[in-house]
Design brief:
Layout: H1 3-8, H2 15-30, E1 35-39, H3 45-52, E2 60-65, H4 69-76, H5 80-86, H6 91-104, E3 109-115, E4 130-137, E5 143-148, H7 154-175
Parallel strand pairs: 1-2, 1-3
Antiparallel strand pairs: 3-4, 4-5
Helix pairs in contact: 2-7
Length: 176
C-alpha cells in the first residue's frame, strides 16, 4: 500500500461533518441516550459521520439504508399503500421511517431522511433537492421537517442533508 492509499481512508468522510457529530455523541452520552439512523437519499452517510465521532460506540446502534420503496416497506415497515400512492419522498414516509427504525433497534432516538438528490426529479415527480427529515425520541412525537435545496448539485444536496440531519438530531437529543 502506498502513502496515497493509506491516506484515502482518513479522508473518506468530511472532517467538518465529523466535527458536527461530536456534540451529538456527547449529548447522547450525557443523557444516556442512543441513536439509530434510517436513510434513503444519504445512503448511510449520516451513520458513517456519527460513527467517526469519539465514543460513538457508546451510543450509536447503527442504521438502516432503505433506498428503494420496497426496502423502506420491508425493512422499516413503511406502509406500501402510502409509497404507491404518494411516493417515497414526503413527510409521512419520513415519519414512518423514524418510527420504524426506533421500533427495530434498541435505541432511544432515531433520525430519518428521504429525498431527491438529483440532478433530475424522482420517479414520482418530486424535484431535485427536496428532502424530508424526521427525528423521534422514545415517548415523544416525531419532529418532521421539509427542505428544498434548490439549484444545488447532488453532492451539495447530500452534504446539506447530512448537515441538517445532524442539527435536527442534536435538537431532539437535547430538547426531547
Amino acid at each position: 500500500m502506498n502513502n496515497e492509499d493509506s491516506n484515502a481512508g482518513a479522508n473518506c468522510v468530511e472532517r467538518n461533518l465529523v466535527r458536527r457529530a461530536q456534540p451529538i455523541v456527547d449529548a447522547l452520552r450525557a443523557r444516556h441516550l442512543s441513536v439509530v439512523t434510517a436513510e434513503s437519499c444519504t445512503a448511510g452517510l449520516v451513520a458513517a459521520i456519527l460513527s467517526h465521532a469519539q465514543h460513538a460506540g457508546e451510543c450509536f446502534h447503527g442504521g438502516f439504508i432503505a433506498y428503494s420503496k420496497n426496502n423502506k416497506s420491508a425493512t422499516l415497515g413503511v406502509d406500501r399503500a402510502l409509497l404507491e400512492t404518494k411516493g417515497s419522498v414526503n413527510a409521512e414516509v419520513a415519519r414512518q421511517m423514524a418510527c420504524g427504525a426506533l421500533a427495530r433497534a434498541p435505541a432511544s432516538v432515531a433520525i430519518a431522511v428521504t429525498g431527491v438528490l438529483g440532478p433530475d426529479p424522482d420517479e414520482d415527480g418530486n424535484p431535485a433537492g427536496l428532502v424530508y427529515f424526521a427525528a423521534r425520541r422514545s415517548g415523544n412525537e416525531p419532529v418532521v421537517l421539509k427542505h428544498l435545496y434548490d439549484g444545488l448539485d447532488p453532492d451539495a444536496v447530500r452534504r446539506c442533508t447530512v448537515q441538517r440531519a445532524l442539527e435536527l438530531l442534536l435538537e431532539v437529543a437535547v430538547d426531547g
